[in-house]
Amino acid sequence: MTVNGTDRADRIDVETDGARVDVEGLKTEVRITGGETIDRLQVNSLGGNDDVDVEQAVFSLIGVAVDLGSGQR
Ligand SMILES: [Ca+2]
Ligand SMILES: [Ca+2]
Asked: Ligand 1: distance of its center to the CA of 3 in Å?
């Protein structure tokens, strides 16, 4: 599963809520429930000076890869 930010500065949080993984800070909040067979989350925050925060507990549920894209300061 891939989620994309915008070309502006995004503040994206990836957090757990029980067995669920929430991605907050995008235009649409993304919820990944344990019933889905997603084992990898790719976060592309694209342009702008982005801040992506992944809660440690998320890594015990799914693999997460973050690409901050261009525009980092
Ligand atoms: Ca960026
Ligand atoms: Ca961005």
From this structure: 14
Residue 73 Cα to ligand 1 middle (Å): 9
- Domains of the chain, first to last: 2-67 (3.100.10)
CA of 5 to the centre of ligand 1 (A): 9
Beta strands in the chain (DSSP E): 2-4, 11-17, 20-24, 30-32, 40-44, 51-54, 63-67
User: Model-level pTM?
Assistant: 0.89
Tens-digit pLDDT profile for residues 3-31 = 999 999 999 999 999 889 999 999 888 89
